[in-house]
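Local shape tokens

___
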Amino acid sequence: MWQLRLLRPVVCQRRLEFVRQLLQRPGQKVVAACRNPDNADGLRDLQQQHSGNLSTVALDVTDEDSITAAAESVKKSHGHVNLLLNCAGVLHIPGELSPETSLSRVTTDNLLRTFKINAFGPILVSKAFWPLLAKAPATEDNPTKLFARRKQHIATLLLHPGTVDTDLSQPFQKNVKPEKLFSRERAIKQLLDIIDSATSKDKAKFIAWDGQEIPW
């Protein structure tokens, strides 16, 4: 049985690694969402390597109409989603947005921008794709759809990847111990291992890269 897995938006090395590792699994179809798929060189390369198993859809997490249109596109092409990975986020943008490491750096515009991407976006994406998750049939080897609400057999996980060696974390790696600075390959494998072991009882859990539950 083909399983559809959706990621959004694939604009950084870590998100692209999710796509790469999922495509390495037999019988997987992946839909990768990003703001401008035509300019996503990494995705185009993967599409050439995995013809027919990877498709893309335009999705901007700051634009609710874009989110709704992406969900409709996936509905028409695949009908349902087995796994929804909400992995878009922003910490800093050189020359545009600095991390709020002190109160002096906090501004209204920056707060609105980060909340729109990091908080509002995932909620709106979940809202749009929830019906497609609810339609996904449970299979013997994958009984769990990753997002949960009420009595449906769908799990919800919040995952902490640790510190991953990417451009995003580069300015903040100074005090990270070498053994705690993970390659993209290792970090994504660790997260996928956690996802694979999830059951319908895993609802609203916050889990670290090593499988330990984080109180919140």
